[in-house]
Design a protein that fits this description.
UBTD1/2; globular; DC-UbP/UBTD2_N; DC-UbP/UBTD2 N-terminal domain-containing protein; 3-stranded antiparallel beta sheet; alpha+beta; two-stranded parallel ribbon
C-alpha cells in the first residue's frame, strides 16, 4: 500500500545512465611530444574549456576526475551528477543536457611521449 507514493532515492540508477568509467584506449599524438608540452596542452584546454559552454562546476569536476585514479574519478562524476556517454570520459553531459567533450590528451598520456631526462 505504501509503494504508490514512493520516490527513487538520490543515487538510484533506475534510468541506466550510470556508466562505469575506464581508462582511454592507448593513443598516439601526431608528433612525439614531451611531458612538459603535454602539461601545457592540458593547462590550455582546462583554462579555455568553460568558454565553450556548460557549467564551470561541471568542468571543475571533470578536471578533478581526469586527474584522479579511476575509483576516485567514478566518485567525482557520480557526485557531480555527470552523465557519462563514453566510458573513457571523452563525452559527458550534465543534468541540463549540456555536452562536455574531453580530448584524450587530458585523460591519458600518448604512447609516443618523449621521456625527458
Amino acid at each position: 500500500m505504501g509503494c504508490a507514493g514512493s520516490t527513487p532515492t538520490v543515487g538510484d540508477a533506475g534510468d541506466g545512465n550510470v556508466k562505469k568509467i575506464r581508462k582511454p584506449k592507448p593513443w598516439k599524438h601526431p608528433q612525439p611530444i614531451t611531458k612538459s608540452q603535454l602539461v601545457q596542452m592540458r593547462e590550455e584546454f582546462w583554462d579555455t574549456a568553460p568558454h565553450y559552454g556548460g557549467r564551470k562546476e561541471i568542468w571543475d569536476a571533470l578536471r578533478a576526475a581526469a586527474e584522479a585514479d579511476l575509483t576516485l574519478a567514478q566518485v567525482i562524476v557520480d557526485s557531480a551528477a555527470v552523465i557519462v556517454q563514453s566510458a573513457d570520459l571523452t563525452v559527458c553531459y550534465d543534468e541540463r543536457g549540456a555536452k562536455y567533450e574531453l580530448p584524450k590528451y587530458v585523460l591519458s598520456e600518448p604512447t609516443n611521449l618523449i621521456r625527458e631526462s
